[in-house]
């Protein structure tokens, strides 16, 4: 096994485990909805790294038939992980730009994920070099298509994210993602690049989450020194008691759907409350609202 490849996988595994630990802590403290999916995603990435390492080491220590088994397991688990990414990236994006996940997005991205997995599985079963190339090309087109969609959507909404730390994280996602696109293209034609691409992908995603959680926990420390928000402190905005309850749940990281379940009301009613809050406080998104609450005269 190439020494540089072993080093890359080892560093990727270390950073991934750190990201997983921070994600678990963030999920327990902030109860962020998308973090639950991320925990599954990150666990899957770490698992595939272990299998990837085992498949490479098996070339040295194990017979060829054992290596074939490891390779098949690795490819299948990797397919599942990347299929999950196709759904997770747009879901993560909807949180970053503070827009609710819509049903049309479920209809759009879940079938793409299933097609991606199906093409990959067929490529594993059909032992044909020409079929493998076209299957890999099809998967790359699907993955890059979702990737570029997320990048364009994030870039268009970047100016609407007024919170400095959130905008910084969003910008870093754009930069890292753009830098990985050439790697995806090169991996189509060069086996060595293909071997390095997966641990580099995992490392890049993990670094983003580590940075995000570091910023989030830093904000928590600053918040501890601030007085508790009260309905009276928002009196100049004419916020009602129900709207104030919605604001508190938004601060806890709940989505509109989760707020509706918490208050036993319809999602449309929550949407109306949120629209009224945005109008009264003159903000355009959840992130703007959280920024206004942190920087107001009561903070």
Structure keywords:
mainly alpha; Rhopdopsin 7-helix transmembrane proteins; Arc Repressor Mutant, subunit A; elongated
Count of individual domains: 2
Mind describing the biggest β-sheet?
none
Tally the helices: what do you get?
A: 11
Average the pLDDT over all residues and give the rounded result: 79
How far the N terminus sits from the C terminus, by CA atoms, comes to 56 Å
Reported by name, the CATH topology of the largest domain is Rhopdopsin 7-helix transmembrane proteins
Strand content: under 5%
Helix content: over 70%
Account of the protein in words:
- The protein is an all-alpha fold and 299 residues long.
- The protein folds into two domains: 3-222, Rhodopsin 7-helix transmembrane proteins (Rhopdopsin 7-helix transmembrane proteins, Up-down Bundle); 232-295, Orthogonal Bundle (Arc Repressor Mutant, subunit A).
- It is built from eleven helices and no strands.
- Helix 2 (33-61) packs antiparallel against helix 7, helix 5 (129-157) packs antiparallel against helix 6 and helix 8 (241-251) packs across helix 10.
- The longest helix is centred in the C-terminal third of the chain and has 34 residues, at 191-224.
- The mean pLDDT is 79.
């Amino acid at each position: 096994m190439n020494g540089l490849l072993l080093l890359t996988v080892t560093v990727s595994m270390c950073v991934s485990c750190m990201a997983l630990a921070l994600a678990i802590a963030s999920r327990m403290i902030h109860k962020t909805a998308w973090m639950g999916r991320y925990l599954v995603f990150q666990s899957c990435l770490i698992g595939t790294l272990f299998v990837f390492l085992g498949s490479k080491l098996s070339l040295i220590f194990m017979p060829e038939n054992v290596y074939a088994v490891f390779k098949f397991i690795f490819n299948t688990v990797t397919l599942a992980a990347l299929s999950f990414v196709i759904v997770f990236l747009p879901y993560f994006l909807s949180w970053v730009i503070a827009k609710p996940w819509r049903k049309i997005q479920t209809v759009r991205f879940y079938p793409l994920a299933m097609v991606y997995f199906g093409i990959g599985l067929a490529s594993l079963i059909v032992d044909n070099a020409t079929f493998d190339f076209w299957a890999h090309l099809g998967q790359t087109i699907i993955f890059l298509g979702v990737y570029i969609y997320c990048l364009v959507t994030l870039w268009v909404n970047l100016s609407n994210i007024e919170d400095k730390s959130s905008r910084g994280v969003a910008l870093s996602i754009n930069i890292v993602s753009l830098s990985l696109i050439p790697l995806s293209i090169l991996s189509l034609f060069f086996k060595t690049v293909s071997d390095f691409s997966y641990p580099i992908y995992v490392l890049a995603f993990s670094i983003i989450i580590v940075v995000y959680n570091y910023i989030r926990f830093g904000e928590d420390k600053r918040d501890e020194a601030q007085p508790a928000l009260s309905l009276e402190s928002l009196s100049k905005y004419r916020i009602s008691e129900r709207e104030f309850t919605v604001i508190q749940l938004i601060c806890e990281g709940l989505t509109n759907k989760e707020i509706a379940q918490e208050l036993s009301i319809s999602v449309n009613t929550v949407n109306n409350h949120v629209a009224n809050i945005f109008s009264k406080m003159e903000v355009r998104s959840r992130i703007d609202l959280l920024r206004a609450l942190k920087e107001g005269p009561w903070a």
